[in-house]
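Researcher: We are triaging several targets before committing to wet-lab work. For this one, the compound of interest is zinc ion. I'm pasting the protein sequence and the ligand SMILES. What I need is the predicted three-dimensional arrangement of the protein with the ligand bound, expressed as structure tokens, so it can go straight into our comparison scripts without reformatting.
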Amino acid sequence: MFCIIYKRHMRIIDVHIHVGHRFEWTERAKEVWMDIGPYVPEIFDKEERQLPQQYGDAIKREGVFGGILIPEYSPLTAGVMPFERAKEIHDVHPELIPIANLNPNYHDNLMDAFEEQLKNGARGLKLHPIHGFFYANDQKLYPLYEKCEKEGLPVMFHAGTSLFKGAKMRYSDPYTFDDVINDFPDMKTILCHGGRGFWYQIAEFMVKSFKNVYIDVSGLPPKNLLQYFPSMKKFSHKFLFGTDFPGAPGIKKNYDTIKELIQDNGAMERIGFRNAYDLFGFWKEDVIPEDRVNP
Ligand SMILES: [Zn+2]
């Protein structure tokens, strides 16, 4: 019995994993983000194509139970890493689940593109306003939010600054997220990076005030999290572990730093596993053999 409980405490879900061939990313994205991680030599071939098997293996080796794979369509800042990249990895690692990505400046018909990605296995929607140059409260996006709210699909927003060249901060205005949260109170909304830069307090306020708002702590130095979010432990049911892979020093390393910081196994189980498991419906993938779950 003890053994089972212990194992559960060790399970990790990383809700923030980027995908794409290396050459699909902009030079700046490689330089300031991707290359800070140790993973590049192993997950791309000589032509800089992602290797789906190795990509997932590198993630699973860190003790990851499951994860969310994020494509992106932001040609002017990050690059175009199409949905197929997430699907390629998912096909060999079913516990790594793709999320849809859309950009109103890229996709002519947002709903058609969304339906197509959902049909191919996407669970939820990730939007990247600061890289794609649109506002979260753009009315063009409202039918998508309606659908997500109705069908219980989580919506992730990049909420915070970006170091990628050309990123425009006004598109990350936290009050645009606040509009959406107020207009779709039953939609599961995740503020990725929790307002990174100088909007931490606003992001934390939203998590505390709105039932369905969460923060994913990816792309932040784990040791500083309690400074950014003093209520993180008390609101451990509203925070999600994520890394921004492959641009992270290490999944397990980040996880262990947060665990050390939080000093509470129950809170850590919620942040590192349970909240994401419930939000994204990982029980549908719960047929994973025990030996592939974190030892
Ligand atoms: Zn990211």
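Researcher: Any quick observations?
Model: Residues 65 and 292 are 8 Å apart (CA to CA).
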